[in-house]
Amino acid sequence: MSNKRFLIMAGGTGGHVFPALATARMLEERGHQVFWLGSRGGMEERLIADTGIPLSLIHISGLRGKGTLALLMAPFRLVRALSEAIAVVRKVRPDCVVGMGGFVTGPGGMAAWLTRTPLVIHEQNAIAGMTNRILARFAKTVLEAFPQSFGAGVVTRCTGNPVRQDLAAVTAPEQRLAGRSGPLNVLVVGGSLGARAINECVPRALALLPDADRPQVRHQCGEKNLTAARKAYADAGVEASVEPFIKDMADAYRWADLVVCRAGALTVSELCVAGVAAILVPFPHAVDDHQTRNGQQMVTAGGAILVPQSRLTPELLAETLRDLGADRDRILNMAQSARSLARPDATERVVNYCLEAANG
């Protein structure tokens, strides 16, 4: 098999960027060339610049909540973005274009179709987004992390979500949690961009617990929320390690007995691969409420407790933490149930489908 050239499109949030990066790294390990198409101002502009992967950026952003003027200008901006994407595809000359989510995949996917370049798309969420539903009509291969995310009428391949290989190497729950006692180690993760409701509720919930029962907390709050989150813990009189962004998630999951987090697709996949019990608080404004659907499989298996944000109160969270802290056998059972849903070969499966498309 000759070496191939791949143009990966992903941006906006960690839920798109990190699965794409895992895919890119495995393609590189197999001797193939990888290029990246992102959007200006997205988190990929910072993250991918540090990886050594050639990065091209186009002007594209979302329209929700931008007002009437943005809607009127949208057709012109889409034409501009499409023109920029076509220029990148013609410059890179990829054997395959791989869409992993984010606003950039719309014009990038259409550019692949217009230049007759094989297109592979991957849907991370349990309900396919509008862009991927459109691109599915033109894609050579449609991949999904959760079964039936596109509904009937679309031929898909269920792969799971690519995660970084260091997460798959996290020790199994029965070994990792053996012999642990005392207060829980609780990892609080608001997602790569943070989650204000979780950031505000957790310190107040911990303050309701007696010192002897109060968990040890490590909290990722998002860069924009750092000052407010640290103040919330200080005001509550609760000690915690508060960080804007955790780079070594494998180490964080290894340390944790329990995770309190959103139910983004990547987060749910990482929890399952690492085998960690969770309290999931889905983002209530996610399109089609897809975060609730993302977490449902984990809840059904017994690996997580789901709390709608509308019901999230310090009192409820404190009670849940108290109950789980008093029953470490339940924590272990939840972790094992989460691990049973893992697809540790997801990255390899996605890469193999990309190679299949590139080889015609």
From TrEMBL:
Residues of the Glycosyltransferase family 28 N-terminal domain: 6-143
UniProt keyword annotation of Cell cycle present: yes
Reaction(s) catalysed (UniProt annotation): di-trans,octa-cis-undecaprenyl diphospho-N-acetyl-alpha-D-muramoyl-L-alanyl-D-glutamyl-meso-2,6-diaminopimeloyl-D-alanyl-D-alanine + UDP-N-acetyl-alpha-D-glucosamine = di-trans,octa-cis-undecaprenyl diphospho-[N-acetyl-alpha-D-glucosaminyl-(1->4)]-N-acetyl-alpha-D-muramoyl-L-alanyl-D-glutamyl-meso-2,6-diaminopimeloyl-D-alanyl-D-alanine + UDP + H(+)
Cellular component GO terms held in the UniProt record: plasma membrane
Residues that bind UDP-N-acetyl-alpha-D-glucosamine: T13, G14, G15, N125, R164, S192, I246, A265, L266, T267, V268, S269, E270, Q291
Major localization listed first in the record, in broad terms: membrane
Pathway(s) per entry: Cell wall biogenesis; peptidoglycan biosynthesis
E.C. number: 2.4.1.227
Location within or outside the cell: Cell membrane
One Pfam family cited in the UniProt record for this chain: Glyco_transf_28
Group of enzyme by EC: transferase
Membrane topology: Peripheral membrane protein
Keywords: Cell cycle, Cell division, Cell membrane, Cell shape, Cell wall biogenesis/degradation, Glycosyltransferase, Membrane, Peptidoglycan synthesis, Transferase
Domain Glycosyl transferase family 28 C-terminal: 186-349
The protein's role, per its UniProt record: Cell wall formation. Catalyzes the transfer of a GlcNAc subunit on undecaprenyl-pyrophosphoryl-MurNAc-pentapeptide (lipid intermediate I) to form undecaprenyl-pyrophosphoryl-MurNAc-(pentapeptide)GlcNAc (lipid intermediate II).
Record NCBIfam families: murG
Protein known as: UDP-N-acetylglucosamine--N-acetylmuramyl-(pentapeptide) pyrophosphoryl-undecaprenol N-acetylglucosamine transferase
Species per Swiss-Prot/TrEMBL record: Marinobacter profundi
Designated gene of the protein: murG
